[in-house]
């Protein structure tokens, strides 16, 4: 019997049950949930980095986005608030669309 010990999407236990298999799951405290969501975010990031096709990459990015929404809630903000913060940072500092790579900055004399 495989042991997973990891955060899963809400419907995964139902899908396992409907497949006729048994499982053990538990509801996490807020503190433990945040810790496990951060681990899951790292897992999904690693899967994104190793994706070999655009389709795989987009699926992993969707998982990352889902986790960003969940974690924003854990930090007391809605996904909409997170998007507002993102937009304001983009307005002030720009986005990443221009593909700029900073090599160095001269020291003041």
Automatic annotation (TrEMBL):
UniProt-listed CDD domains: NTP-PPase_COG4997
InterPro entries recorded: MSMEG_1276-like_NTP-PPase_dom, PRib-ATP_PPHydrolase-like
Pfam families to which the protein is assigned, alphabetical: PRA-PH
Name of the protein in its database record: Phosphoribosyl-ATP pyrophosphohydrolase
Species classification: Bacteria, Bacillati, Bacillota, Bacilli, Bacillales
């Amino acid at each position: 019997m495989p042991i997973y010990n990891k955060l899963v999407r809400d419907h995964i236990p139902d899908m396992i049950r409907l497949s006729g298999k048994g499982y053990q799951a538990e509801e996490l405290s807020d503190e433990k949930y945040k810790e496990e969501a951060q681990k899951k975010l790292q897992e999904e990031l690693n899967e994104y980095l190793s994706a070999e096709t655009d389709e795989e990459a987009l699926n992993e990015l969707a998982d990352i986005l889902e986790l960003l929404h969940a974690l924003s809630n854990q930090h007391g903000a809605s996904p909409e608030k997170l998007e507002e913060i993102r937009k304001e940072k983009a307005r002030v500092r720009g986005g990443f669309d221009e593909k700029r790579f900073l090599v160095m900055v001269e020291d003041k004399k």
